[in-house]
Write a structure and sequence with these properties.
Blueprint lengths: L13 E17 L6 E17 L3 H22 L19 H6 L3 H6 L6 H15 L4 E9 H4 L11 H4 L4 H12 L2 H4 L1 H14 L2 E8 L9 H9 L11 E3 L7 H12 L1
Parallel strand pairs: 1-4, 4-5
Antiparallel strand pairs: 1-2, 2-3
Length: 264
């Protein structure tokens, strides 16, 4: 006979949703004499994932939807001519994007021309979205990164002896290593997912991974990173990424907001 399971024990994994978004900002330096800012070409990144037990999903989505409807109604009250704006396509209410709310981007740039104090409402909405995301059923995981941090000098690439160089196109390999080390999806994304995988194991859970659709498909992407590490036996509790809009998977907005605030 097999060992009797304790009361309440089940082999069934608890379902989780993992909602991922990337926040990025180009760094700039200030000239002490002219006070002018110059972009450096170096980027800072925050990778954010909101991991949610699916029993809390409906309540969180409902709260976010109520806020989005309020935002939409107020925007159209102040600026009814924006009804056809691309942010309101297909009749969906405005999505919650922290960078637009905080910096008056997107549709809010147009509203600024009508009401230059509208930003007060935008900041209030951002704070309320943060309150929704502070629900105890949401577990956040972050991983910070930067171009400068990821870059590695040539001297750190190990030297190979002549016998190996006969069979290995070393210059090509070195260039590949250098380009990969500056890509946060190669260096930082796996660290983030490994932490989430450990968290799901501790909770006897499995998670569906939803990424925002504005991922960069060039070079080493989200899918490349996931497939590379999964092939080596990791991410036992995380399913392959699916790319969604914030309307399709509203809880991505939680990762958007938290990541942007942390980046600042």
């Amino acid at each position: 006979m097999g060992r009797k399971k304790p009361p309440g024990h089940t082999n069934k994994f608890k379902p989780y949703g993992i909602y991922f978004d990337e926040s990025a900002r180009e760094e700039a330096t200030k000239d002490d004499i002219t006070d002018a800012w110059t972009k450096t070409g170096q980027f800072a990144y925050v990778f954010t994932a909101a991991t949610v037990n699916q029993r809390n999903k409906g309540r969180l989505e409902s709260q976010l939807l109520d806020l989005r409807r309020e935002m939409t109604n107020e925007v159209l009250r102040v600026a009814p001519h924006l009804e056809t704006h691309k942010s309101l396509k297909d009749g969906h209410p405005l999505e919650i994007h922290a960078v637009d709310l905080y910096q008056s981007g997107g549709i809010y740039r147009e509203i600024k021309r009508v009401d230059n104090l509208f930003w007060h409402k935008q900041h209030d909405w951002l704070e309320r979205a943060l309150e929704i995301g502070s629900h105890p059923g949401v577990k956040y995981h972050f991983q910070t990164s930067s171009t400068e941090q990821n870059a590695t000098s040539w001297s750190s690439v190990p030297k190979l002896d002549d016998s190996l160089l006969r069979y290995l196109p070393f210059e090509k390999v070195k260039n590949k290593i250098k380009s990969m080390q500056s890509n946060p999806y190669f260096t930082s994304f796996p660290i983030l997912l490994s932490r989430i995988d450990d968290y799901l194991i501790s909770k006897h859970g499995k998670g569906d991974l939803y990424c925002h659709t504005n991922f960069d498909a060039k070079g080493y992407s989200t899918l490349d990173s996931f497939a590379h590490v999964r092939a080596r036996g990791h991410y036992s509790r995380i399913k392959s990424p699916e790319f969604m809009t914030c309307t399709q998977e509203p809880l991505i907005q939680l990762a958007d907001i938290a990541g942007y605030v942390l980046l600042q």
